[in-house]
Design goal:
The structure holds 2 protein chains of 2 kinds.
Chain A lengths: L2 H13 L8 E6 L5 E15 L5 E12 L16 E5 L8 E12 L5 E11 L2
Chain B lengths: L3 H17 L4 E2 L17 E11 L11 E15 L1 E3 L1 H4 L6 H9 L4 H21 L14 E10 L3 E3 L2 E16 L11 H13 L11 H4 L4
Parallel strand pairs in B: 1-2
Antiparallel strand pairs in B: 2-3, 3-7, 5-7, 6-7
Classes of the chains: A mainly beta, B alpha+beta.
Chain lengths: 125, 220
Amino acid sequence: MTGLRAQAEAYLEQTLEDPNLFGMEIELISPEGERIQVYGQVIYKSMVTNDLGLETVVNKPVVTVRASSLSRVPLPTDSPRWACRIPESPQAGADLKTYIVETPEEGGGSLGIIRLYLTLAEQSS
Amino acid sequence: MTMEFRTVKTAVVNLLGAAAAGRFRVVGYKPRAMAPEEANDTRRTVQVFYASGDFPRSGGGSLGPVLHNCTLKIDLAVACAAKGDLSVLEDETATAVQLAAALDGFQESADLADSTMDALIDAVYQILMDGENVDLGLTAGDVSNRWIARVTKEGPSPRGEFVMMNGEMDLSFRVAEELAGDEGTPADPTLGAVYTEIETSIPDGSSADTAPAALRGGGI
């Protein structure tokens, strides 16, 4: 990674991870049971197009973290899936809610970020 | 007088709603008050639509009852989250081995949606094809030839925090439709009031027939 991309990656500490800006506390749990605490961005709502072609807003958290802050990067082929715990809401002091990482995706090719698409995890009966 | 297929559709909604017992929710069914634990899973829904009907022509068809071969579309939908031992993942003191075991034991939402849909199809099929429900909850002879000819389901798709799956069931049956004629629409009571007002305001000797025709009839 060189030039502008390297510069942008270096800035992620401020633009993505700074808890005084958009950085939120995120806990990842790897398939081996390792807990990884990082700061990253959480977008809680997503715009989707339904079967009728209408756009609707749904609860679909998408987490963006800096790849270099992780000791191990989630891969789409990982089995079992990773777990991801994020604040229930963007408000300070919110409880963490647990999700399963449905698809990890390397964002922007080589910009050094990973996007995690999550599905809700529930206690089995 | 409503057509018979509408009565049967309502009967199917009521039959499924009464037999659901918290396993799924029937759209349009007005349930009795139930305890929260009875309705703990409202992410399985069933909706009944009238999809198509054939009217085979017969000799007396233009005067007497008409044969109606109907198909109701039973729309099935489930939404599932991943399920597993969440308490371990939320336990700060859990060891790496325990966390790995908990993650390994998680059932993925797409897999769960598939098995949940299979269970829903199983339940709805068994209710509708139960020998006791041969008349779909109506008087014996009102409906005949009840049959589920086809079941389809579509692959799971992520929707928000959940994974959804949709399915369809074709329920066909035969009823006799009475040709009662169109009832029209009820008269607009405000027009009747206007007509009365006009009539009372006309001096003696005049004819109320001068009121506009639509008002004289009090309706359409």
